[in-house]
Amino acid sequence: MNKNFIVLHIIVVLTLLICSNGSRADSEYYADLSIPLVEEISLNLDKKFDGYHGKIVKQILDQYPDKISFNLTSPKHAYEAFYKGRYSCVTPDSKSYYDLPNDFVDSTALSSVDWVIVQRKGTKPILSKKDLIGLSVGSFYAPEEIASIVPQEGVVYDVIPNHSTILRKVAARRNDIAILPQVGLTKLIAKREELKDLTFEISPKIATVAEAIMCHDTKRGREIIKLVNQGLKAINKKQP
């Protein structure tokens, strides 16, 4: 077979593969903004934007009905798909959660959240991250997703995407403590009899994080950050 023909054939095949992969990547881009269905967004997890963070997100999105696409979805899907580049942005989140190198950029902060230690009444207070070493800890998020809050070594993490189950395992002594955002915990603990022995008032809060709309540092991500920041300025101007 002629060598020139072989070279030409290889070039054509590679070109087709590149085009194929490019169109596949485009088809796997779900939307601009990934929004996990958590209480910060929707108080009753019913897709209403009535959580303290969700109210602000809704005011921003209402200003750009045709400029920012979004999906409300499960927390696991929302964050995993964002990390894989299926979405340009995710909220609530913050670059400050991550210690590892990343390409993330934050908008101006929309809200802030206290992270607390939930434990059984009568147990010793946890006064520093060092006190977590050797414990089994229930968490909604994988430790690498909240690396600035929790130790990455020396702790056994039980990651469960359900707050009630996390708390029940602490109450049943299957985990020592849980580390969670404070949002909704008082209500959740009060309405379940099996959780009555739990409290988050023994230990000081472990962190307070200003949460934003966090995007990949790409052209589209930066465009969305610009729109979000402009939207926040407009909201703040309207407030007395």
Q: How is this structure best described in words?
A:
Strands 1, 2, 3, 4, 5, 6, 7, 8, 9 and 10 form a ten-stranded mixed β-sheet that branches. Helix 2 links the parallel strand 1 (31-36) and strand 2 (70-73). The protein contains six helices and ten strands, in the order αβαβαβββββαβαββα. The protein has two domains: 26-108 and 213-238, 3-Layer(aba) Sandwich (D-Maltodextrin-Binding Protein, domain 2), CATH 3.40.190; 112-208, D-Maltodextrin-Binding Protein, domain 2. The protein is of the alpha/beta class and 240 residues long.
What topology does this entry show?
Blueprint: H1 3-27, E1 31-36, H2 52-63, E2 70-73, H3 75-83, E3 87-93, E4 104-106, E5 111-120, E6 136-139, E7 156-159, H4 163-171, E8 177-181, H5 185-190, E9 198-199, E10 207-216, H6 219-238
Parallel strand pairs: 1-2, 1-3, 6-7, 6-8
Antiparallel strand pairs: 3-10, 4-10, 5-8, 5-9, 5-10
Summary, kept brief:
34% of the residues lie in helices and 23% in strands.
Task: Provide tags for this entry.
240 residues; ten-stranded mixed β-sheet; globular; D-Maltodextrin-Binding Protein, domain 2; alpha/beta; disordered N terminus; single chain; Solute-binding protein family 3/N-terminal domain-containing protein; 23% strand; 34% helix
